[in-house]
Amino acid sequence: MPKIFVILFISLAVAAGSCKSGGQNDTAGDEIPDSVLNQGIEISEEVMQDIVQNISSPVEMAAMIKDLGVPFSNKYISTTDRVGNLTTSFQQSMNLGVYAADLGYLNMYNKTSAVVDYLTAIKTLSDAIKVGQFFDFTTLKRLATNSKNLDSLMYISVHSFNQMDKYLHTNNRTNLSALMVTGVWIEGLFLGTQVYKATPNEDLAERIGEQKLTLDQLMLILDKYRKDKQYTVLLDELQKLKDLFSSVVIYTKKGEPQMVEVDGVLTIVGGDESIVEISPELLSNIVTATEQVRNKLISL
Q1: What are phi and psi for residue 252, nearest 5 degrees?
Q2: pLDDT digit string (tens) for 69-91?
């Protein structure tokens, strides 16, 4: 998987965690301020990056799907026409992650015209949480209209997110970071499960089963913010998936290290293999539950 895409999603998640709140809730008086949610809780940048690195990148998932010969479908991504209805920092951070995941899927299929719409959605949400000044959206839009410019598009995006991260990391907004990562994760899982539903594949099934580990990590972090009823609802929804994933069995099969040649250099690689056991019936239930949970979360 191209490292630039990994860096993009890591930068997105960490930077979003540093953002200041924007917008009002329909129950504004009941929304707990971020400063209260974060009081006494510090989730380091290193911990958050470790979690994001363990998330199956939506671009990696999209690459696998494309290799399977599965055609692009708008059914697998979230529409941008609901951005104006996202008025709280909770909604904006969650859906910023969702649209970041969708952007990766669009890039993999070179859907340059649609990329502009999703960049616009990301700009709107970024402005709402007061980080839009770190993006040169004019240049990004220009690059997005030509598939030959995708490498430059991703490079500038990464640079922008890194600037945002440097500026905002000291603000200790880990609750929004957790939401951002959750948005990326649930949209990537939705993409994978929907494609599996249409085109069953063993490798894709294993990739879905591996998400058990990441879900456990996400829920441990999100549990710190149960003081806010929105996080309680979020955790209740994710628990539905966790209950199903608890039946997935993951273990390591020991193997002998091997000597391989990489770019003309001999390198020793481990021979251990991760084994994922997930029955067709369980997978079917996870597919159904993921669709229900994802649709609920993007509308919270």
Answers
A1: -105, 125
A2: 888 999 999 999 999 999 998 99
